[in-house]
Input
Amino acid sequence: MWSRYSFYPRTNNTLDPTSAPELSNTTHKHFSVFDGCETMEAGIIFDLVFQSFNIIIGFPANVLVLAILIRNRNEPTTSDIFLGCLAFMDAYFGLMVPVSFLNLYYWQSKQGWMALKFSYGVKDTSGPLFLSCICLDRFVAVLFPIAFGQLKDNKYRIGLSIFVLCLTFAYAAAKTVGGLPNFEKVFTGEILAIFAWMVVCNLAILSALKRSRGAGKDEMHPMKKKAFKMVLSLLAIIVCNYLPLVALFPFQDHYTPLDFTCYVQPVGYAFLNISSTIQPLVYLSRLEKLPFLPESVQKVICCKFKKENSAA
Output
């Protein structure tokens, strides 16, 4: 079940080479959301534990990010559109966590599984693509400031966001319908290309910011220092959340089909899924003041982050 590329009835013979002669009988089998992993649930439980953080912490954090972006809409930054789309998609994905639990252990519904597959398609595509857009925005701002000044109009970012959303929903719809040959290689190629782009992009930004210190000065300009910390935190997210997928998925042929479906995929995806919690928390940690929260709560949070920053 937990393979985001397994479909019922199973038609991808690369996962089960011996299934073709019996394909005509599979339509009469009882639907199982575990899809062959009934006795190998450890990887699935691992992913579900990670996903639980998305509804407990990630969903309210993403809602808070959206509220802050709306509150500051009169003084937006150039990346706010991408951040807002990313927070909205992560909030939607977090809301699907209770559906996952209910469908696994209570409903056992094919329709519920189709809805989950759509949400997985949204998560697979929207997160990496919108992070890439943020990286591109920062990359142009730091390395090509003149061109960035000419492209500050929000219409460019709105157009790019609409394009990303179209790609996201097309991919999610194709995943939901299923049956496309070698469809899993689309995601593997996407994640490899995006990971390489984001790492190179962020390293180039960090290098440019480090070189931008004034002559004879040891300290970086406060605004550039703030941008440096933002890009550094973004790079940490990219490595933590996407490196496991990049390290595991290209070697799919080295695993047995069941091991890959029941263990490798859910563990790899768990690191991707938890990004729906990590991303909004990183954004909130960079703010000097958190609106909508009681001052006592803000003091606790601010003190904690100050201690962490001084220790770093």
User: Anything to note?
Assistant: The longest helix spans residues 110-143. Confidence is low (pLDDT under 50) at residues 5-28, 308-312. The CA atoms of residues 139 and 145 lie 9 Å apart.
